[in-house]
Amino acid sequence: GETTATSADVDTIDATEESPIHILWINAGLSCDGDSVALTAATQPTIEEIALGALPGLPKVAVHWPLIDYECGPVQGADNFVEWFFKADRGELEPFVLVIEGSIPNEAIKREGYWCGFGDDPETGQPITTSEWIDRLASKALAVVAIGTCATYGGIHAMQGNPTGAMGVPDYLGWDWKSKAGIPIVCIPGCPVHPDNASETLTYLLYQAAGSAPMIPLDEELRPTWLFGATVHEGCDRAGYYEQGQFATEYGSPQCLVKLGCWGPVVKCNVPKRGWINGVGGCPNVGGICIACTMPGFPDKFMPFMDEPPGARISSTASGAYGTVIRKLRDITARTVDKEPKWRHRGDKILTGYRP
Ligand code: SF4
Ligand code: SF4
Ligand code: SF4
């Protein structure tokens, strides 16, 4: 494809059938593949729509993704899944977006062996570590996307007391790292990632590569601002109960879950607004406390999960007192507005206030 500069630091790619934008997906960090699985449930857009070119103006893409790829095999050679990664390393795959799923263990602290790898080194027959792939490919990629909380901030594998020294991609490459096209690491957290947050962000980057979208807006933690700008609480359909001081004391209640351990008021996540799959679900909406799985401090700063968050005690006590008064006043208004106006009747007089 042809590369032309269009703005200060973004290149535009003219992707064609013969020269598509490749998406190289490494799920060989410390990962459960949950984010790959989640993406198969995306609806806005679907992964099929991205891969098959169903979206107007979207560049042609070729997806190399372990979850769905027919090609397999861990060594270098034709018709081999890992060959695409060797090609990219040799500079023969232009352009490509590197997607990383799973946290990056610290290979510098191990005593022997390796923590995790992907494909074999033909010279030695030994696995190539995930960190080595990142070292080889990041500088050649159009953009690097960290998908899921493990890849973005370390997640579950990076908990206190872990033996691998695991970290997220920005911890590994540096928070100020930029791709050769001037794009910072794009972080889409979530454990797993919300399917549509993932497919929408990939779509955005492809439109940006085609020159149809400006530089992707990211916040300080490198998240797309339009997806992670609001809290769970701001989008929760139980927020009215919170405001009226009505708190569930057991599961199965429709009321606010804060006393059961919901961290929603301080968690940046759009899941309750968006629903989990095709608009349906969304943790607190359907009765599950928010355990803050999208957050950089997850999981340590939110444990133990089933306890009421420490800050919630003060705010829920305040809203409990205020909410009781407000609810009483609302009851009066509610009784009034729950009745029809008095002039609707069958009598022979018009009482609507109409004057001919
Ligand atoms: Fe699995 Fe969660 Fe890590 Fe994704 S972020 S790889 S879903 S543990
Ligand atoms: Fe906020 Fe959680 Fe209560 Fe929803 S359930 S209103 S997110 S505290
Ligand atoms: Fe995770 Fe909370 Fe968002 Fe659910 S609502 S996905 S637990 S951050």
TrEMBL record:
Its cofactor is [4Fe-4S] cluster. GO terms for cellular component: [Ni-Fe] hydrogenase complex; cell envelope; ferredoxin hydrogenase complex; membrane. Its main location: other. It is found in: Cell envelope. One of its GO terms (biological process) is anaerobic respiration. [4Fe-4S] cluster 2 binds at H233, C236, C256, C262. Residues 32-204 form the NADH:ubiquinone oxidoreductase-like 20kDa subunit domain. Keywords: 3Fe-4S, 4Fe-4S, Iron, Iron-sulfur, Metal-binding, Oxidoreductase, Signal. Residues 228-305 form the Cytochrome-c3 hydrogenase C-terminal domain. GO terms for molecular function: 3 iron, 4 sulfur cluster binding; 4 iron, 4 sulfur cluster binding; electron transfer activity; ferredoxin hydrogenase activity; metal ion binding. [3Fe-4S] cluster binds at C290, C293. [4Fe-4S] cluster 1 binds at C32, C150, C191. Belongs to the [NiFe]/[NiFeSe] hydrogenase small subunit family. Heterodimer of a large and a small subunit. This is Hydrogenase small subunit. It comes from Wenjunlia tyrosinilytica.
